[in-house]
Amino acid sequence: MWIHQRTARVAAVAAALVLFGAGAEVANGTCPAPHFVYRHGSMTFTEHGASTQVHVEIADTPETQEVGLMCRTALDPDAGMLFTFAADTSGSFWMKDTLIPLSIAFIDSDWHIVSIMDMKVEADPAHPDPRDLYGPPRSYRYALEVNQGFFAQHDIDIGTQVAFLAQEPATHP
Length: 173
Hints:
Layout: E1 2-3, H1 10-16, E2 25-26, E3 39-47, E4 50-59, H2 62-67, E5 72-74, E6 79-89, E7 93-94, E8 102-107, E9 113-119, E10 140-147, H3 150-153, E11 161-166
């Protein structure tokens, strides 16, 4: 997933990075995205008296935000990618080199969902220009991508309260 307002820097990022993430199911050599070691966390959605948890990889740098879930061929049912921004933003997302259909929740700085959208795989995911852009009607601070239909399956709506817990990085003695 690329953020539309960013410039196309994947070639430079790919040349500069040789970091590999664990557990990602990535297309076999057919997709140009570099791999990252992401920080992790969990998000809990509380709606209608029920709680739902998602384990997330955190995209919090321009490089990781440009790549997002590109080239993945599968995503665990309770997993996602959380995009975090230093300030409110209004940039759109698109499905460049994204091979699985996703749903995205845009979340404000108070950790409430302001918009939910389903994002379809592009007819030609490798095409350099997006056909469809996905952006909410108002600014947001965070965006969470999960498997398409996740929010509907768990009865998660606009206004739902979200709690986030970052996992501490592993330390070595």
